[in-house]
Amino acid sequence: MKPPPSNQIGGKGSVRRKIKVVRNRNFIQKKTKEQLRLENVIKRINNYISNIDNEYIQVANVLIEDIISDGFSDLERCDTKSKEIYVEVKKDVNKFMKSKLMNGNKFKEDGYVILIKYFIKECVDCVMDIYDDIENFLEKKKYVEEEVDELEMTDKQCFEILGLDVAVTPTKIDLKRAFKKKSFEYHPDKHPDEIDKYTELYQNISVAYKLILKRYKL
Protein backbone atom coordinates (compact mmCIF):
# COMPACT_ATOMS: atom_id res chain seq x y z
CA MET A 1 0.00 0.00 0.00
CA LYS A 2 1.31 3.42 -0.96
CA PRO A 3 1.90 5.87 1.85
CA PRO A 4 -0.32 8.95 1.82
CA PRO A 5 1.04 11.91 -0.17
CA SER A 6 3.23 14.20 1.86
CA ASN A 7 3.87 17.94 1.81
CA GLN A 8 7.45 17.20 2.74
CA ILE A 9 10.11 18.48 0.37
CA GLY A 10 13.52 16.85 0.08
CA GLY A 11 14.86 13.53 1.18
CA LYS A 12 14.53 11.52 4.34
CA GLY A 13 14.88 13.54 7.50
CA SER A 14 14.03 16.81 5.83
CA VAL A 15 11.66 19.01 7.80
CA ARG A 16 11.01 21.49 5.04
CA ARG A 17 7.41 21.60 3.96
CA LYS A 18 5.53 23.15 1.12
CA ILE A 19 4.12 26.50 2.02
CA LYS A 20 0.95 27.45 0.26
CA VAL A 21 1.38 30.96 -1.07
CA VAL A 22 -1.72 33.05 -1.26
CA ARG A 23 -1.44 36.23 -3.28
CA ASN A 24 -4.16 38.78 -2.69
CA ARG A 25 -4.76 40.87 -5.75
CA ASN A 26 -5.57 44.46 -4.95
CA PHE A 27 -8.21 45.85 -7.25
CA ILE A 28 -8.27 49.64 -7.30
CA GLN A 29 -11.62 51.00 -8.34
CA LYS A 30 -11.36 52.97 -11.53
CA LYS A 31 -12.38 56.60 -11.19
CA THR A 32 -15.40 57.72 -13.15
CA LYS A 33 -15.38 60.59 -15.65
CA GLU A 34 -17.41 62.68 -13.21
CA GLN A 35 -14.97 62.04 -10.39
CA LEU A 36 -11.95 62.94 -12.51
CA ARG A 37 -13.66 66.07 -13.83
CA LEU A 38 -14.52 67.29 -10.33
CA GLU A 39 -10.99 66.61 -9.09
CA ASN A 40 -9.61 68.80 -11.88
CA VAL A 41 -12.15 71.55 -11.17
CA ILE A 42 -11.23 71.51 -7.48
CA LYS A 43 -7.51 71.68 -8.29
CA ARG A 44 -8.12 74.77 -10.40
CA ILE A 45 -10.33 76.33 -7.72
CA ASN A 46 -7.66 75.81 -5.07
CA ASN A 47 -5.04 77.30 -7.38
CA TYR A 48 -7.19 80.40 -7.92
CA ILE A 49 -7.72 80.71 -4.16
CA SER A 50 -3.96 80.53 -3.57
CA ASN A 51 -3.43 83.46 -5.92
CA ILE A 52 -6.05 85.86 -4.52
CA ASP A 53 -4.50 89.11 -3.33
CA ASN A 54 -4.71 89.54 0.44
CA GLU A 55 -7.01 92.56 0.17
CA TYR A 56 -9.66 90.45 -1.58
CA ILE A 57 -9.46 87.19 0.38
CA GLN A 58 -12.23 88.00 2.86
CA VAL A 59 -14.56 89.29 0.15
CA ALA A 60 -13.89 86.25 -2.05
CA ASN A 61 -14.51 83.83 0.84
CA VAL A 62 -17.83 85.46 1.68
CA LEU A 63 -18.95 85.41 -1.95
CA ILE A 64 -17.98 81.74 -2.29
CA GLU A 65 -20.15 81.01 0.73
CA ASP A 66 -22.92 82.94 -1.00
CA ILE A 67 -22.61 80.72 -4.09
CA ILE A 68 -22.75 77.60 -1.92
CA SER A 69 -25.79 78.82 0.05
CA ASP A 70 -27.61 79.71 -3.14
CA GLY A 71 -26.71 76.39 -4.78
CA PHE A 72 -28.08 74.32 -1.90
CA SER A 73 -31.15 76.50 -1.33
CA ASP A 74 -33.56 74.07 -2.98
CA LEU A 75 -32.14 70.89 -1.42
CA GLU A 76 -34.86 68.38 -0.52
CA ARG A 77 -34.87 65.44 1.88
CA CYS A 78 -34.91 62.95 -1.01
CA ASP A 79 -31.58 64.38 -2.25
CA THR A 80 -29.70 63.14 0.82
CA LYS A 81 -29.01 59.61 2.00
CA SER A 82 -30.09 60.33 5.57
CA LYS A 83 -32.35 62.67 7.46
CA GLU A 84 -29.45 63.70 9.69
CA ILE A 85 -27.41 65.00 6.75
CA TYR A 86 -30.41 66.86 5.35
CA VAL A 87 -30.97 68.62 8.69
CA GLU A 88 -27.25 69.44 9.01
CA VAL A 89 -27.04 70.94 5.52
CA LYS A 90 -30.26 72.97 5.87
CA LYS A 91 -29.16 74.31 9.24
CA ASP A 92 -25.84 75.70 7.96
CA VAL A 93 -24.61 74.49 4.58
CA ASN A 94 -21.32 76.40 4.78
CA LYS A 95 -20.52 74.85 8.13
CA PHE A 96 -21.26 71.46 6.57
CA MET A 97 -18.95 72.23 3.64
CA LYS A 98 -16.13 73.39 5.88
CA SER A 99 -16.33 70.32 8.11
CA LYS A 100 -16.80 67.69 5.40
CA LEU A 101 -15.46 69.05 2.10
CA MET A 102 -12.86 71.68 2.92
CA ASN A 103 -9.51 72.16 4.65
CA GLY A 104 -9.43 75.77 5.74
CA ASN A 105 -10.44 77.84 2.70
CA LYS A 106 -9.37 75.13 0.21
CA PHE A 107 -11.58 72.33 -1.11
CA LYS A 108 -10.71 68.65 -0.64
CA GLU A 109 -9.74 67.05 -3.95
CA ASP A 110 -11.61 63.82 -3.09
CA GLY A 111 -14.84 65.81 -2.89
CA TYR A 112 -16.68 63.47 -5.26
CA VAL A 113 -16.15 60.45 -3.01
CA ILE A 114 -17.36 62.45 -0.01
CA LEU A 115 -20.42 63.79 -1.83
CA ILE A 116 -21.48 60.30 -2.97
CA LYS A 117 -21.36 59.25 0.66
CA TYR A 118 -24.00 61.82 1.69
CA PHE A 119 -26.08 62.58 -1.42
CA ILE A 120 -27.80 60.63 -4.17
CA LYS A 121 -26.16 60.60 -7.62
CA GLU A 122 -28.58 63.13 -9.15
CA CYS A 123 -27.90 65.58 -6.34
CA VAL A 124 -24.13 65.12 -6.66
CA ASP A 125 -24.42 66.14 -10.32
CA CYS A 126 -26.14 69.35 -9.21
CA VAL A 127 -23.51 70.02 -6.54
CA MET A 128 -20.84 69.70 -9.23
CA ASP A 129 -22.51 72.65 -10.94
CA ILE A 130 -21.89 74.66 -7.76
CA TYR A 131 -18.18 73.89 -8.03
CA ASP A 132 -18.32 75.06 -11.65
CA ASP A 133 -19.92 78.33 -10.52
CA ILE A 134 -17.18 78.83 -7.93
CA GLU A 135 -14.48 78.18 -10.55
CA ASN A 136 -16.10 80.64 -12.96
CA PHE A 137 -16.37 83.24 -10.19
CA LEU A 138 -12.69 82.89 -9.26
CA GLU A 139 -11.40 82.59 -12.83
CA LYS A 140 -13.03 85.86 -13.84
CA LYS A 141 -12.04 87.51 -10.54
CA LYS A 142 -15.59 88.70 -9.97
CA TYR A 143 -14.61 89.54 -6.39
CA VAL A 144 -12.60 92.45 -7.76
CA GLU A 145 -15.04 95.27 -8.33
CA GLU A 146 -14.16 98.66 -9.73
CA GLU A 147 -12.51 100.60 -6.97
CA VAL A 148 -13.86 104.02 -6.02
CA ASP A 149 -12.13 106.84 -4.29
CA GLU A 150 -12.76 106.49 -0.56
CA LEU A 151 -13.95 110.09 -0.46
CA GLU A 152 -16.80 109.18 -2.82
CA MET A 153 -18.37 106.92 -0.21
CA THR A 154 -18.54 108.07 3.40
CA ASP A 155 -18.71 105.76 6.41
CA LYS A 156 -22.36 106.68 6.81
CA GLN A 157 -23.12 105.67 3.22
CA CYS A 158 -21.28 102.38 3.68
CA PHE A 159 -23.23 101.61 6.86
CA GLU A 160 -26.54 102.44 5.19
CA ILE A 161 -25.77 100.31 2.14
CA LEU A 162 -24.96 97.36 4.38
CA GLY A 163 -27.93 97.98 6.67
CA LEU A 164 -25.75 98.63 9.72
CA ASP A 165 -26.42 101.00 12.62
CA VAL A 166 -24.26 104.09 12.03
CA ALA A 167 -24.04 104.67 15.78
CA VAL A 168 -22.39 101.31 16.48
CA THR A 169 -18.98 100.14 15.33
CA PRO A 170 -19.54 96.66 13.87
CA THR A 171 -17.50 93.61 14.73
CA LYS A 172 -15.97 91.59 11.93
CA ILE A 173 -18.73 88.99 12.37
CA ASP A 174 -21.46 91.66 12.24
CA LEU A 175 -19.98 93.11 9.07
CA LYS A 176 -19.65 89.71 7.43
CA ARG A 177 -23.26 88.81 8.23
CA ALA A 178 -24.53 92.13 6.90
CA PHE A 179 -22.53 91.73 3.71
CA LYS A 180 -23.76 88.17 3.13
CA LYS A 181 -27.37 89.17 3.73
CA LYS A 182 -27.26 92.17 1.40
CA SER A 183 -25.22 90.50 -1.34
CA PHE A 184 -27.61 87.55 -1.34
CA GLU A 185 -30.63 89.86 -1.46
CA TYR A 186 -29.28 92.15 -4.22
CA HIS A 187 -27.40 89.61 -6.36
CA PRO A 188 -28.09 90.41 -10.06
CA ASP A 189 -28.93 86.76 -10.79
CA LYS A 190 -31.96 87.11 -8.53
CA HIS A 191 -33.24 90.09 -10.50
CA PRO A 192 -32.91 89.17 -14.20
CA ASP A 193 -35.47 91.82 -15.24
CA GLU A 194 -33.43 94.64 -13.67
CA ILE A 195 -29.93 93.26 -14.02
CA ASP A 196 -28.19 96.63 -14.66
CA LYS A 197 -29.76 98.22 -11.60
CA TYR A 198 -28.90 95.35 -9.30
CA THR A 199 -25.40 94.93 -10.73
CA GLU A 200 -24.64 98.49 -9.61
CA LEU A 201 -26.24 97.92 -6.19
CA TYR A 202 -24.30 94.67 -5.79
CA GLN A 203 -21.04 96.42 -6.64
CA ASN A 204 -21.78 99.17 -4.10
CA ILE A 205 -22.36 96.54 -1.42
CA SER A 206 -18.97 94.96 -2.17
CA VAL A 207 -17.19 98.33 -2.15
CA ALA A 208 -18.89 99.37 1.12
CA TYR A 209 -17.83 96.08 2.71
CA LYS A 210 -14.19 96.50 1.63
CA LEU A 211 -14.06 100.13 2.78
CA ILE A 212 -15.41 99.32 6.25
CA LEU A 213 -12.97 96.40 6.54
CA LYS A 214 -10.10 98.72 5.66
CA ARG A 215 -11.12 101.82 7.60
CA TYR A 216 -11.94 100.01 10.82
CA LYS A 217 -9.10 97.48 10.44
CA LEU A 218 -11.45 94.53 10.97
What does this structure look like?
The radius of gyration is 28 Å and the shape is elongated. It is built from 9 helices and 2 strands. The chain has 218 residues and is an all-alpha fold. Strands 1-2 form a two-stranded antiparallel sheet. The chain folds into 2 domains: 107 residues, no CATH class; 66 residues, Helix Hairpins, CATH 1.10.287. It is 57% helix and 2% strand.
What key attributes describe this structure?
218 residues; mainly alpha; Helix Hairpins; 2 domains; two-stranded antiparallel ribbon
The ordered H/E elements are HHHHEEHHHHH
- Rounded mean pLDDT is 84
Count of alpha/pi helices: 9
The proportion of strand residues reads under 5%
